Amino acid sequence: MRDPFYELDDSMYIPETKILNLNNEWTVKFSRLQIKFDMEVSRKSTTETAHFSGILELKQEGRVIDRLSFQHLFRKGSTSALIAIPVKIISSWDITLKGTISIKNENFTTEMSESDEVIQHKSWEELSNNFKRLLDPEVSNFSDVCFICGSVTIPAHKSILSAKISRLRCHVYCPNERKHRKQGAYPRHGSAHPTSHAASYVHRFNRKSDHRICWRSSGRCRQVPTRRP
């Protein structure tokens, strides 16, 4: 397409329906029904993929009342698309429109689609490896952030993950775990327990009942009824 970029003049008045022919290929129809505002885009040729995007600026009595962006990917065989404009029109009639519309060819959209596919379809193993590298002290400083609770230093990312993402099961181990177990401070079910000094930061769920176990600095625990997240 020779001219993929179009300017919409702010003197363009928007009544109930306004049809704008961008060129001999593309047509845009603006429709209004009370406060609902839609834009219908149609094209003649359907042999290519095209990316339709732009920015709209709605004015009332010369004052900008809303500014928004839109985009739509026309795949091969697609002739039209209805794009809803989420704007509340204050007045019934005195609305003018200004903006730009860009139509990019198949080469651009192919590159964009391939890039999106790589990101969206990344395997869990790759994401896990990326997260592992993020916590690697030789690569990132994120793993150097720690909580100091009394005489115990706890990696911050482990505490945060334990409290917020229970499925990852990133528990903080207690150096005196055996001693506490002998004294009966910890129940024997479940996996590794957080240190008693880090109690206010770490929560875990008891799978057998709908209770959250809150560990206190004394090494004891109590169950508080709660809803699962």
Characterise the protein shown here.
By secondary structure, this protein is of the alpha+beta class. It contains 4 helices and 13 strands. It has a 4-stranded antiparallel beta sheet with strand order 1-8-5-6. Strand 9 and strand 10 form a beta hairpin. The longest helix is centred in the middle third of the chain and has 15 residues. It is elongated and about 70 Å long. The two termini are 51 Å apart. The C terminus is likely disordered.
Distance between the termini: 51 Å
Give the beta-strand count.
13
Strand content: 35-45%
Helix content: 10-25%
Mean pLDDT over all positions: 61
Give the biggest beta sheet: 4 strands, antiparallel
Strand order of the largest sheet: 1-8-5-6
Computed over alpha carbons, the radius of gyration is: 29 Å
Low-confidence stretches: 108-121, 164-229
Principal-axis shape equals: elongated
Q: What's the helix-strand series?
A: EEEEEEEEHHEEHHEEE
Number of helices: 4
Helices and strands: which structural class? alpha+beta
InterPro entries: SKP1/BTB/POZ_sf
Protein name: BTB domain-containing protein
Organism: Caerostris extrusa
Outline the fold blueprint.
Elements: E1 5-13, E2 17-21, E3 26-33, E4 36-43, E5 50-60, E6 63-74, E7 80-85, E8 96-104, H1 106-120, H2 124-134, E9 146-149, E10 152-155, H3 156-164, H4 177-182, E11 203-206, E12 211-215, E13 221-225
Antiparallel strand pairs: 1-8, 2-3, 3-4, 4-7, 5-6, 5-8, 9-10, 11-12, 12-13
Question: What attributes does this structure have?
Answer:
4 helices, alpha+beta, disordered C terminus, elongated, 229 residues
